[in-house]
Amino acid sequence: MTEGMHGRRLTAAQYDVWLGRRLGAPGAAHHVAALVEIAGPVDAGRLADAVRAAVVEAGLHAAVRETRDGPRLVPPPDGPEVPVVDLRDEADPDAAARAWTEAERSAPAGPLAQAVLRTAGDRCLWYQRYDPVLLDCHAVPPLERRAARIYTALTEGTPAPPSPFPAPADVLAEEDAYRDSPDRTRDREHWTTLFADRPGRVGVGSGRVGGGGGTCSGDRGTVRCRAGDGAGRRRGGVPGAARRGA
Q1: Domain-by-domain residue ranges, the chain?
Q2: 46 in Cβ contact with 154 (< 8 Å)
Q3: What's domain 3-178+219-234's architecture?
Q4: Band of the pLDDT at 121, cuts 50, 70, 90?
Q5: Does 161 score more than 70 pLDDT?
């Protein structure tokens, strides 16, 4: 079985997010959205290429599929789409950009969305949306920095620096090694001793948790990520870019 055909298993953290969604945990259906303002003379097509490359490097171009062996992250047959949307001829390009992002965020098509919105000759907005099974808000700034470095390399005609992202197979191998190591036994003993006076775990075998019972019943919202050392200046103007239903 190859990853391309059957996908890869989820990490422990990804599985927790996926399971919470399946059980209808409040807020489990939220997505992560961000909007980065990039001022100056930008080649929008080249920026889209840089974003596409960073997404692939980070292993984000995938969707969760349920299989006989459990949930798997399966890459689509085609590469990630990063459309360039030219809004410069709109009466109010900023308002048009807000409307575009709100429409996409409110009715997400798939686990991932990227777009470059050009609102002026010297101004672009990079829109991003992620299923939290793929990426949380803490990982958005590193992805932005990587896209910025790839864009610089494409502009200068030089190779991009090595990717900072570990291969998904290496992450899974590290989890496997920890699971079978004395460190895990020691950590488990520490935490079970520390919380020995707390109630025991609650099983989820045949019960219903929350209102979903196996569906995504939580209100869908987004998470506004704090500004980081990214490709540009993060805007706080994505409508509704605050977590709801958590």
Answers
A1: 3-178+219-234
A2: yes
A3: 2-Layer Sandwich (3.30)
A4: very high
A5: yes
